[in-house]
TrEMBL record:
Keyword terms of this UniProt record: Fatty acid metabolism, Isomerase, Lipid metabolism, Transit peptide
GO process annotations (BP): fatty acid metabolic process
Pfam families registered for this protein in UniProt: ECH_1 (PF00378)
Classification lineage: Bacteria, Pseudomonadati, Pseudomonadota, Alphaproteobacteria, Rhodobacterales
A molecular function (GO) term: isomerase activity
Organism: Polymorphum gilvum (strain LMG 25793 / CGMCC 1.9160 / SL003B-26A1)
Name of this chain's protein: Enoyl-CoA hydratase domain-containing protein 3, mitochondrial
SUPFAM superfamilies registered for this protein in UniProt: ClpP/crotonase
Record has Transmembrane as a keyword: no
Family statement drawn from the similarity comment of this UniProt entry: Belongs to the enoyl-CoA hydratase/isomerase family.
C-alpha cells in the first residue's frame, strides 16, 4: 500500500508581533520581504494593536520596530498600482488609504501612552512619517531616512504633515524637494530622532530608555503627552492659560500628591494612576 504524504500547511506570520514586558509593549512589523510597507493589512494590524494598548493598564510605553533591513518603506506601491485598474482609476481606493493612514498617525499622536520608534534600516515616505509621528525615536547608526516621492512624480504630501511638525521648515523642505536619503547623524541634527545607538547595544539601550519612562505615573504621562500636542497649536498666551489649567488639575491628582510626598520623604513613589 502506498502512503501519500502531504506537505504540512505553513500558516503565514501575522503582520505584527507584540510582546509586553515590565510595562513596555514592543510591536514589531514583520513583513521584511515587503520592507514592512504600510499595506492595508499592516495598517489594520497597527490600528488594532494601538487601540488595544490604549485600554490595557499594563501597557505604560510602546516601542514600534520593523523586522529586517527596513523600519518601514511607506505605502505598498504594488497595492496602490493595482487600484488603477478600478473604473475610477483608483480614486476611491486612494482616498480610503489616505484617510486610514492619517487616522493611524493621529492615533499615535493622540495615544495616551508614549510611543517610541526604534529604527533599524530605512524609513522612507510614510515610513518616515511614522517615525515623525511617534513621540520619540531611537535609531541605529546605520539607519537612513527619506521622503523620496518627488523622485517618482508623487510629492510626499501626507508625510510632509508629520515631518514639518517635527523638524525645522528648511530641513523639511530639503528632504521633500530633493528626495535624498539622510543618515542617522543628520536626522538627529534635524530633530527627527532623539538618539543614535550602535546596533550591538540597541536592545539594551532601548529597553532601559523605555523602562525609565514606564516607571513614571501613567496618569502624569497621559496628561503630559496630551497637553504637549494641544498647546503646540495654540497662540502663546492661550497656551499658557491652557497649561496653567492642566497644571492645577495635575497638582490635585493623587499621583502628584504621592509623588511630592515620596520626594520629601526620600522614598520611591507608589503610583495608582489617579
Amino acid at each position: 500500500m502506498s502512503e501519500s504524504v502531504s506537505a504540512a500547511r505553513v500558516e503565514p506570520k501575522p503582520p505584527l508581533a507584540s510582546l509586553l514586558h515590565n510595562g513596555v509593549l514592543r510591536l514589531v512589523m514583520q513583513r521584511p520581504e515587503r520592507m514592512n510597507s504600510l499595506s492595508e493589512e499592516m495598517m489594520a494590524a497597527l490600528a488594532a494593536a494601538f487601540a488595544e494598548a490604549a485600554e490595557d493598564p499594563g501597557v505604560r510605553v510602546i516601542l514600534l520596530a520593523g523586522e529586517g533591513r527596513a523600519f518601514c518603506a511607506g505605502h505598498d506601491l504594488k497595492e496602490m498600482t493595482a487600484a488603477r485598474a478600478h473604473p475610477d482609476r483608483g480614486r476611491g481606493y486612494y482616498e480610503d488609504m489616505m484617510r486610514r493612514c492619517a487616522a493611524l498617525m493621529l492615533q499615535i499622536v493622540h495615544h495616551p501612552k508614549p510611543v517610541i520608534a526604534v529604527v533599524t534600516g530605512v524609513a522612507t515616505a510614510a515610513g518616515c512619517q511614522l517615525v515623525a509621528s511617534c513621540d520619540l525615536a531611537i535609531a541605529t547608526d546605520t539607519a537612513t531616512f527619506c521622503t523620496p516621492g518627488v523622485n517618482i512624480g508623487l510629492f510626499c504630501s501626507t508625510p510632509m504633515v508629520a515631518l514639518s511638525r517635527t523638524v525645522a521648515r528648511k530641513q523639511a523642505m530639503e528632504m521633500l524637494l530633493t528626495g535624498e536619503s539622510i543618515d542617522a547623524a543628520t536626522a538627529k541634527d534635524f530633530g527627527l530622532i532623539n538618539r543614535i545607538v550602535p546596533a550591538d547595544y540597541l536592545e539594551q539601550v532601548v529597553q532601559k530608555y523605555a523602562e525609565t519612562i514606564a516607571s513614571k505615573s501613567p496618569l502624569t504621562l497621559k496628561i503630559g503627552k496630551e497637553s504637549f500636542y494641544r498647546q503646540l497649536e495654540m497662540p502663546l498666551a492661550e497656551a499658557y492659560a491652557y497649561a496653567s489649567r492642566v497644571m492645577v488639575d495635575n497638582m490635585l491628582a493623587r499621583d502628584a500628591e504621592e509623588g511630592i510626598n515620596a520626594f520629601l520623604q526620600k522614598r520611591k513613589p507608589e503610583w495608582t494612576g489617579r
